[in-house]
Amino acid sequence: xxxxxxxxxxxxxxxxxxxxxxxxxxxxxxxxxxxxxxxxxxxxxxxxxxxxxxxxxxxxxxxxxxxxxxxxxxxxxxxxxxxxxxxxxxxxxxxxxxxxxxxxxxxxxxxxxxxxxxxxxxxxxxxxxxxxxxxxxxxxxxxxxxxxxxxxxxxxxxxxxxxxxxxxxxxxxxxxxxxxxxxxxxxxxxxxxxxxxxxxxxxxxxxxxxxxxxxxxxxxxxxxxxxxxxxxxxxxxxxxxxxxxxxxxxxxxxxxxxxxxxxxxxxxxxxxxxxxxxxxxxxxxxxxxxxxxxxxxxxxxxxxxxxxxxxxxxxxxxxxxxxxxxxxxxxxxxxxxxxxxxxxxxxxxxxxxxxxxxxxxxxxxxxxxxxxxxxxxxxxxxxx
Amino acid sequence: xxxxxxxxxxxxxxxxxxxxxxxxxxxxxxxxxxxxxxxxxxxxxxxxxxxxxxxxxxxxxxxxxxxxxxxxxxxxxxxxxxxxxxxxxxxxxxxxxxxxxxxxxxxxxxxxxxxxxxxxxxxxxxxxxxxxxxxxxxxxxxxxxxxxxxxxxxxxxxxxxxxxxxxxxxxxxxxxxxxxxxxxxxxxxxxxxxxxxxxxxxxxxxxxxxxxxxxxxxxxxxxxxxxxxxxxxxxxxxxxxxxxxxxxxxxxxxxxxxxxxxxxxxxxxxxxxxxxxx
Lengths: 384, 278
Prior knowledge:
The structure holds two protein chains of two kinds.
Chain A: E1 9-14, H1 15-26, E2 30-33, H2 40-52, E3 56-59, H3 63-75, E4 80-84, H4 86-101, E5 106-114, E6 120-124, H5 129-134, E7 143-145, H6 150-167, E8 170-176, H7 177-181, E9 183-188, E10 233-235, H8 250-265, H9 268-271, E11 274-277, E12 284-288, H10 290-305, E13 310-315, E14 317-319, H11 323-332, E15 335-340, H12 345-351, E16 360-364, H13 373-383
Chain B: H1 5-9, H2 25-39, E1 46-50, E2 65-68, H3 74-84, E3 89-95, H4 96-100, H5 104-113, E4 117-123, E5 126-127, E6 133-134, H6 158-165, E7 169-174, H7 178-190, E8 195-200, H8 204-208, H9 216-221, H10 223-226, E9 227-229, H11 230-234, H12 238-241, E10 245-252, H13 259-273
Parallel strand pairs in B: 1-2, 1-3, 3-4, 4-8, 7-8, 9-10
Antiparallel strand pairs in B: 5-6, 7-10
Helix pairs in contact in B: 2-7, 5-6
């Protein structure tokens, strides 16, 4: 079992192992979860490695409790994470929305499997693109990142913790059943390469003056820790800067909700990450995430050999979606092909963007098998 | 002059409270405040966690760290807080619906783990916040907004549920028996493990009126007649007990070790075995 966390070296890891090791490197010291295929190995490794590093692992009674315990631990100062798959992620939405409103740094890993319902537990899919954004009731921002390799799972898990701490918000990472269990050689970065971020703490005298939701120009309020001397209160009811319910004042309700949207929106350039592959002269743009995007590169290389000007746009941060970059490519593209393992969720996002009207074609697969390069290649041939 | 316990431990700027006239929640809240005062625990190390419902507003008025969470989940949030920092004294204020219906799973599993939380159930036999529907502790036959023909569901006995699940301190008192209520909550705070105090309280507006039980004062005054002690109960037949509420300390056991202490030993052991992490 891989025990090395900081030593810069190459290791062969599965996606699930990379997530746990990345989380530990980012400073995770609390994990609460509930067993679910195909995410379970993240919990298993966390249960072994956390106590070795002085951290804590808890197996909760269900996913509702897992997300709740993660948020509770974060209020008590922990860097906390949970990991699940689609069905568990559905159960976590309730307390995830608490984390959004109460602005709680924490990380949720969703190892996507074929759905809906029990679907096919052991087979990969990309069906949680919309759940990750709109699974809760009400409106709120969220950061969701969708890595496409074992190495990127490691780095994006680190970045998820950093963004959670920096922006005081839950962050989701989407993996899938294929990446979870496939092994790849990855480079484990040295500790000083990771630039670990810790949440901003309040800097006021220890009296009642600390207001847990009073933000400066950054829109990100400093966060105290339960037990460190401030006596502060947090409610899942819409609250004002004091943390107490403010339901009688429409202006305060609006102020709270617009600030939490703004604190993410105004930092999009720092949050968003995307990859472009052979796009400089591309007339056809493939838009794809995660493991499907890797397959797409094979299809693109093959089509390129035949002179087809095709390239790939791969959002790494799925939410907020890197709209501007794709719109720039869309403006000069003749066709856009969305390639994904669901019935067309990514396609709906792209459809909303400027410059994509009438250009969108789809290639989808939702039968539990991986998308093949052949499928994408055939689609390129059909639309060119 | 010494500050009054309410001035010291409550947020006077949040009063008056939002509960109805005659509501028993205030008596339970003041019992919690007095119990905390009696145990002498550090005000800065107390976290009061609540769910959703009338009783879950109680920590709005207390001057400790407070977390007002989602419906049914306060015990799960409290578990994360306690596990992350076992030095904190974590108290859960919850209702009968919050803790035994939507949050029933968290209730029994926290008791099974015997994690050091003090759970005070404000048990008013109905869902007050939503207008008075029957809950898992509504007596059979009682009329509520959703049992207009009389409730046919047998009630949970919160104490037996806690005891059966493994809680190491379990007691029940009422808004009439305030001195024992304070003592039980204090004992629960002192107990190193999962403590449940079933605080029987009154909802005159929604439960009392519709069942002809009178206003708040009359409902409180009825408790001596309605209750029997654990010792008295032993001499009664099941039929005689049917209409009675048993009060007293059901469990007070230090024979089971506490969860975070056991986990601390896991950490110690894992670190002893740990190979070089470089």
